[in-house]
Design a protein that fits this description.
Layout: E1 7-10, H1 12-16, H2 26-39, E2 43-47, H3 53-65, E3 70-74, H4 79-88, E4 95-102, H5 105-111, H6 121-140, E5 146-151, H7 158-171, E6 175-180, H8 187-200, E7 208-213, H9 220-229, E8 234-237, H10 251-260, H11 262-265, H12 276-287, H13 308-316, H14 343-353, H15 360-377, H16 382-393, E9 400-408, E10 416-423, E11 429-435, H17 439-451, E12 456-464, E13 473-480, E14 486-493, H18 496-516
Parallel strand pairs: 1-2, 1-8, 2-3, 3-4, 4-5, 5-6, 6-7, 7-8
Antiparallel strand pairs: 9-10, 10-11, 12-13, 13-14
The structure holds 3-methyl-2-oxobutanoic acid and zinc ion (ZN).
Length: about 525
């Protein structure tokens, strides 16, 4: 008999980070993991340890420092993957290995073309079961908490799915993940699949079924909830719904649906929903993927009422147009305002309240930046602080540093920029000047000339972090190198041209850091 508790499995740091053009450093991942722990997720999928030495180290770091949630690592059904995950997770208080294999005919026939997997589809399917059960056995050598994913369950042959699920439960898997890898499922049909699995797999009562849905057709949250309604007791997703292609199911949406519609689901989670807004903002900032204003639960307009009829109704009785309260998801009413007189201790205190624990060195550096902003802006809001922190703890090596920027522009003048760029390990500073179509274009031209690199600028966005004319500007740029790999850079400043130049240099630093590895 399923319980009334829904286990929340967060994969922001694994599936989320797979989103095109995003790469997090270990320090940023650790900070997000700490925030996810505060949010109250039950499981943090910290990465895919075999995929790169950086991912291995990040999983190791999170496993050794974050307590509370179970720390999980992803693997394929391959021994060396499982050994890497086992090692990366060794220091975790509670660890899980998440292993699995493609189970749809499309995956089996497409991935296991080689005859060593069998000559016929039937033989390849038998081999798939064998590989899956062996993987469970290897994973059990590291932890007794093993989850098995049946990749592309949404398009799998039903009888084969029953067979492999039965076999991996018998082999010791405690959680069975039924991913809709390609976002193909329809809620009614996917819910029924879970009900059918529970009814038809003889040992289904020995495992928890998990939903892992992608958003290609915009139905990931609906599919996840349909699964839950039919007996799944774990949901997987990401903050802000980031992830492969159109993304994963958004955790804040699933959880708020469960909480707001308790009358319908009658289920609970361990989530402290008041941490949603802060978590969302941190993930958006670190990944350089802004949250659309109309995004459910955490978008800037999610609780904004503008049309006359709505505002009138809302002011008379909140419930007329609101089904959740902004406070319930921690949406900010930025009451705390810091000024240049706040002092280091005050800043440290506020940072702690916001959930950040910086090293002394980081705090010192942040304080310098805080003073510059406080002098210019007079008042520094929580959102400004978050933007500055993101800047501070981005762990990418600063190979190039913007030392000086001067831009001249105006009606009837040709925008020109001059820059001085310091290169790590070199004494001399490179200088360059250039003209452009506008001030930012001129600055980018000058930077390219100074550093002798010309990555293609794919996108550029600037936004005000807070309201008012003294707001901090936050620029996000995406550049593409010659292999078509994308790098995201971010910069903040009260001067938007400086923020834009910093973002460009940050993206270039990320590109260079990858090449130097
Ligand atoms: O979407 C998917 O199938 C996955 C698995 C690796 C769990 O991300
Ligand atoms: Zn996925």
């Amino acid at each position: 008999m399923p319980t009334d508790k829904i286990i929340v499995f967060d994969t922001t740091l694994r599936d989320g980070e797979q989103a095109a053009g995003t790469r997090l450093g270990a320090r940023e991942k650790l900070e997000i993991a700490a925030q996810l722990a505060r949010l109250g997720v039950d499981i943090i999928e910290a990465g895919f340890p075999i995929s790169s030495p950086e991912d291995f180290q990040a999983v190791q770091l999170i496993a050794s420092q974050i307590t509370g949630p179970v720390i999980c690592g992803l693997t394929r059904a391959i021994k060396k993957d499982i050994d890497a995950a086992g090692k990366a997770l060794a220091k975790a208080k509670k660890s899980r290995i998440h292993t699995g294999i493609g189970v749809s005919d499309i995956h089996i026939a497409g991935k296991f073309k080689d005859e060593k997997y069998g000559k016929t589809l039937k033989a390849k399917k038998d081999k798939t079961i064998e590989m899956g059960t062996k993987a469970i056995k290897w994973a059990l050598e590291y932890t007794n908490d093993v989850e098995f994913y049946c990749e592309d369950s949404g398009r799998a042959d039903r009888d084969f799915l029953y067979q492999i699920v039965e076999a991996v439960i018998a082999a010791g898997a405690k959680t069975i993940n039924i991913p809709d890898t390609t976002g193909y499922a329809i809620p009614e049909q996917f819910g029924k699949l879970i009900a059918d699995l529970i009814a038809n797999v003889p040992n289904s009562n020995k495992a928890i079924f998990s939903m892992h849905c992608h958003d290609d057709l915009g139905m990931s949250v609906a599919n996840s909830l349909a699964g839950v309604k039919n007996g799944a007791r774990q949901v997987e997703g990401t903050i802000n719904g980031i992830g492969e292609r159109a993304g994963n199911a958004s955790i804040e949406e699933i959880v708020m649906a469960l909480h707001t519609r308790k009358d319908f689901f009658n289920l609970k989670t361990n989530i402290n929903t008041k941490e949603f807004y802060r978590t969302s903002r941190m993930v958006a900032d670190f990944l350089g993927m802004p949250v659309p204003a109309n995004k459910a639960v955490v978008g800037a307009n999610a609780f904004a009422h503008s049309s006359g009829i709505h505002v009138d109704g809302f002011l008379k009785e909140r419930q007329t147009y609101e089904i959740m309260k902004a406070e319930d998801v921690g949406s900010p009413k930025s009451e705390v305002v810091l000024t240049a007189r706040t002092g280091r201790a005050g800043l440290k205190h506020r940072l702690k309240e916001l959930g950040f624990t910086l090293t002394k060195e980081e705090l010192d550096q942040l304080y310098e930046k805080f003073l510059v902003v406080a002098d210019k802006k007079t008042e520094v809001f929580d959102e400004d602080l978050m933007a500055l922190i993101t800047d501070e703890i981005r762990t990418v090596e600063r190979y190039f540093e913007l030392e000086y920027l001067h831009v001249a522009c105006g009606t009837g003048t040709l925008p020109t920029a001059s820059v001085k760029i310091k290169t790590a390990g070199k004494k001399n500073v490179s200088t360059a000047a250039a003209c452009g179509d506008g001030p930012i274009d001129a600055a980018y031209q000058a930077i390219r000339e100074a550093i002798k690199l010309s990555p293609k600028l794919e996108s550029y966005a600037i936004k005000a972090v807070t309201g008012g004319k003294k707001a901090l500007g936050e620029a996000t740029v995406k550049i593409v190198d010659e292999t078509n790999t994308r790098f995201t850079g971010r910069g903040v400043s009260t001067d938007i041209i400086e923020a834009s130049a910093k973002a460009y240099v940050d993206a270039i630093n990320r590109m260079v850091a990858t090449k130097l590895k």
